[in-house]
Design a protein that fits this description.
The chain is an all-beta fold. The protein has no helices and eleven strands.
Length: 123
């Protein structure tokens, strides 16, 4: 299984970006998915997660109400819509998959990781 994240870039405070993650070598509906991020000098942290069917979602408090995670199992794609971006959202964003039905907050629960995409929010 391989994950490829894309969609990062440079955006001004208050702007929006949509990150995409494509899963290959497997069937997306077999996996719960998560987005994590890592800022310079900080540990990787949970951002959002989605269960295999898309009905269960979870968010970090810092992004709740601004970010939306979604998935399209037919296309093997997961998305992270990010609105009202803040400078503190600047980080490398990673998608990850977990071979079970439910997403969790914990990095160690995820089996596969993408390479990351940089998001920079300028003030």
């Amino acid at each position: 299984v391989q994950l490829q994240a894309s969609g990062g870039g440079v955006v001004q405070t208050g702007g929006s970006l949509t990150l995409s993650c494509v899963l290959s070598g497997g069937t997306l509906s077999s996996f719960a998915m998560g987005w994590f991020r890592q800022a310079p000098g900080r540990e990787r942290e949970f951002v959002a997660g989605i269960g295999w069917s898309g009905t269960m979602t979870a968010y970090a408090d810092s992004v709740k109400g601004r970010f939306t995670i979604s998935r399209d199992n037919a296309k093997n794609m997961v998305y992270l819509q990010m609105n009202n971006l803040k400078p503190e959202d600047t980080a490398v964003y990673y998608c990850a998959s977990r071979l079970t039905t439910s997403a969790t907050y914990y990095l160690e629960d995820y089996n596969y990781w993408g390479q990351g995409t940089q998001v920079t929010v300028s003030s």
